[in-house]
Amino acid sequence: MRSASGLPFDDIRNLMSGLPGPDKERWQGIRSGLDALAWPAASFGRLVPMTEWLAAWQAEGPQVLRPLLAIFAATHGAEESGIAGEGELPAQKEVELIAAGGAPVNQVALEAGLGLKVFDLALDYPTNNVAEDDALDEAGCAATMAFGMEAIAGGTDLLCLGAVGRGNRVLAGALAAALMGGKPDRFLDEATDAQRRFAEEACARVQGTSDPLEFLRRLGGREMAAIAGAILAARYQRIPVLLDGFVSTAAAAVLLKANERALDHCMAAHAASPAHEDLLSELGLKPILEYGIGAENGLGAALAVSHLKQAAAAVRQTVTREAAGL
What we know:
about 45% helix; globular
């Protein structure tokens, strides 16, 4: 454990240094149980590693009985720089539509038996324009991470994470580029001149920074800080995490840069774009789906939940060779 200096990030750094590992016995139990099934393990394909992953990171299971989608919504002063993509809804309006049950993610969540919570992260108070100033101070970023940790307070056996924030994909792209290296627009897909210029200015402003948490507070938004906190809390509560879109993946990248084992309990729901695929590759994550879904609000994760449910059922409930009389 690190010695305390009284700085807001100290508690986060202490948590990052003591991450619990997987339950190897339960993981091996799934693997050994496959040998007894009437069908060979190879016939299950990727259903096996999905089920092993659930077993290794759940207190009970592998099963998906109480999945939860937590959507974190924020606003950004950077919106004034023209970073929003064509057709992107204002955060307040998207939150209203999800709360009213009218968004695509609501319909899929209902079909998948997925609980859904939307967290308003001070929508009336945008973070600073990160091309000109730090998004948050250290206390504000740490407090937002702590708020994100509370997403699992009601209990769940699978946490899905999504984001709402107009223009936040460009912010996440700048954050990812700063963390991973390369040109400032490396993680921007078909960017406009304004978006490229914004990423260049934002990344140039944080040159010399090396601490991943500093990159988060200086370049990220409240939704990214809250997602990072939720991922960290889930690790300590033995809850597997399903990352939705590019924004949640960029938030997860902060933790990986702080601890190379930080995302062992995470899986990627889908790959939304070439930039998203690039970042997932950097993180060592293979998406469950490749539907090209551009929404960041959990739609891809909601779809992937059904795949995980079915994977666990197929591996756990298939008849054994003995029962089949083989």
